[in-house]
């Protein structure tokens, strides 16, 4: 069983010591389990330090027969361009990804390899979300939160994109097509939406690793770019109930400049919701509500449900319920 593990690396110096140590330990474990891995770090605009560390790791992996590593040095490109490049640079039947700021679990990986070898072509897993919090506003501590498997092929919505440690077969990738390189953040979710009709999905049980939240992540940040891209995914699919308020001008520009690849004609009410006269204030209020704590949010939604308070989030919820009928 042979798997390509592709890592798109860009300005990853702070994470390299942990990443390289994790890769070496992981490589030893999966090699001992009989899994052959082709490691493909795609280094974007690498510094001298990054080149030195990647080359050192390459020598250690290759010299110890823990798989094979082939670094690729490129000018800066999108994450999904690097993923497509890594897939094109390998010949393995199975494919996985590993970001430099995360730690992959050998246990989850081996489960995925066995599932793909047994007839599945897409696998996703639970993982652990790791973030730094300050207790009493003073003392930084690591917070670990176990996150259930995200992807659900029966209910594809904003919260059901692929997790950070998903795996797939090359045959599925060839059937679905490459990742859309215009996306910067949600390209894996866009690809997953296209894969739904062809997926023989394995719902992984093993924890697949640690996903580190550090402030510079591309995804899972709740930022405007991510929200805009996820909106584009559902605009392309014609699934209006999954849309959320975003920066109106940025959404409109993204849709018309690169998002609308299929000549989709949006209904007037959808354009009005996203970038009509009231869209900017709706987005600002929605942003303010998202920054509220969980207790305040529950109180606000309860009051809005009784008609006692105006809430952009509650209005979106009601609209989604109506659209789903």
Architecture blueprint of SSEs:
Layout: E1 2-10, H1 16-32, E2 36-44, H2 48-63, E3 68-69, E4 72-74, H3 79-88, E5 94-97, E6 102-104, H4 106-117, E7 122-124, E8 127-135, E9 139-147, E10 167-169, H5 170-176, H6 187-195, E11 201-203, E12 209-213, H7 224-237, H8 248-259, H9 268-275, H10 279-290, H11 294-305, H12 312-323
Parallel strand pairs: 1-2, 1-5, 2-3, 2-4, 7-11, 8-12
Antiparallel strand pairs: 5-10, 6-12, 7-10, 8-9
Helix pairs in contact: 1-2, 1-4, 7-8
Account of the 3D structure:
Helix 1 packs parallel to helix 2 (48-63), helix 1 packs across helix 4 (106-117) and helix 7 (224-237) packs across helix 8. Strand 2 (36-44), helix 2 and strand 3 (68-69) form a beta-alpha-beta unit. The mean pLDDT is 90. This protein has 325 residues and is of the alpha/beta class. It is globular and about 65 Å long. The protein has twelve helices and twelve strands. The chain is 43% helix and 19% strand. Strands 1, 2, 3, 4, 5, 7, 10 and 11 form an eight-stranded mixed sheet that branches.
Short summary of the structure?
With 325 residues, the chain is an alpha/beta fold.
Strand content: 15-25%
Can you tell me the overall shape? globular
Summarize the amount of helix as a percent range. 40-55%
Distance between the amino and carboxyl termini: 46 Å
**N to C succession of SSEs:** EHEHEEHEEHEEEEHHEEHHHHHH
* Strands, count: 12
- By DSSP (H or I, 4+ residues per run), the number of helices equals 12
The parts where pLDDT drops under 50 for at least 5 residues are none
| Major sheet summary line | 8 strands, mixed
Rg over CA atoms: 21 Å
Overall pLDDT, averaged? 90
Q: Given the helix and strand composition, which structural class is it?
A: alpha/beta
